Every structure is written in C-alpha cells, then in structure tokens.
Amino acid sequence: MKRRFFFASSTDHTTLLSNAIVHRVGEEYGKRSYILIPDGTDVELALKVDKLHLARIFADGKLIYGGKVVQRSLGSYAQVCKPLLEMALKDSKSQGEEPIALASLDGLSKWVVDGIEGQLDIETLKILRVENDKSMYEACVAIATGIPRPGHSVVGQGTYRDGEIGWAQLATEYVNLKNTEGESLLYQENGGKLIGIDHLADTSSEGLMGAGGSMARFQFNL
Prior knowledge:
The protein folds into two domains: 10-97, no CATH class; 104-219, no CATH class. Helices cover 43% and strands 19% of the residues. The chain has helices spanning 10-19, 43-48, 77-80, 82-93, 108-116, 123-131, 134-145, 157-177, 183-188, 205-211, and strands spanning 21-26, 31-37, 55-60, 63-69, 100-104, 193-198, 215-219. A seven-stranded mixed β-sheet has the order 1-2-3-4-5-7-6.
C-alpha cells in the first residue's frame, strides 16, 4: 500500500491554508498566542500537540513576537503567518495601541560571514573595514563567526560591547534588503516599519549563533 503524506502537493497546501482557522489562546489583550490549525482539527488536541499547528505567533499587550511557520513546506512566513498577524494587530489596535513587533533575524550571521569571505557585497561591511576602528570590525567578525578576536579566548561581553554599533548597522542593512523569508519580512510586508535593532535581545544559543543575539523592532501605525 502506497503511503500518503499529509501535505501531498502545492494544491493541497493552498487548500489547507485557505481553509485553516486562527485561534486566540489566552487573555484577549494580555499574554496570548495565536495558532493556525487545519479546519476540522480538534482545538483542545492542538493545544496539547504543537506539531498540529501550521503556524503560530505570540503577543503580550501591544508587543507581537515569536512568529513561526511550523509546517515549513507550506510557504514563507509572510504568507503563512499573515492571518495570525492580522488578528494580533486587530486586537492591539482595538485598545488604541500602536503595535510593536520584535522579529528574529535568523541567517544574519551567515550573511555577514558570506560578506567577510567575499561571497556577497555588503556595503556596511566595507564601511566598517575602512572607516571605523579596528576593534569594532574585529568584534563584528567574531560575533558572526563565533571565533574569538585575536588576543581573546572567548566571544564574550567585551566583544558584543565593542561590536554593538557596527552589528546594528549590519542588521539594519540585512533587514532592509528584504532578502529573507523569515519573521522580519512578515512584518515588513504587512505594514511594519523598522524602528531599531535590539542588541542582545535573544541570548539563546540559537539567537547568538544565528543573529548575534539581535532582533529587529517594527512599529505599526493605527
């Protein structure tokens, strides 16, 4: 007997997304989450089994964060998470608040490494090499690669301090290029305006390795 996978074709994906249901979990305007699940899926079961989610996003007051496509084969964050973001924005705006979104920047470190190795032309990296002090450039290289600076044994607090300004400039260029299918593009394509880079906002091992701990902050107007 031939086994049938849950997501069999692009047609299945489109139908699945168009019929999917958004559920708010938690307080209406406190700490809450929004989950996207297939039509007909038992909500109580979905709350217990994360793998049944198609996507999810979190919010606390006016802050929106943690957007994630669970079933990655369905498409980009901007496509799959859009109905979740729309509900979260609607809830915030109903309170007269201007929503803020905090986006992970997965892929930032690799992008910088590709620039260091000459595989990409990164304008900010060229400026850091030429116009800024050597310690800032070396700190940014260390943050991106995870390899300590010359004369240092670890990539520690001093490295992140010395590289903070340069790393924020690199992160800003990365976000503005809109060349990622991740969480930042979800907010950009749905009315979010980049208002800053939060340094060391995500100090998890994944956050430090993938983006030097930085996250992008977006604002949505009422």
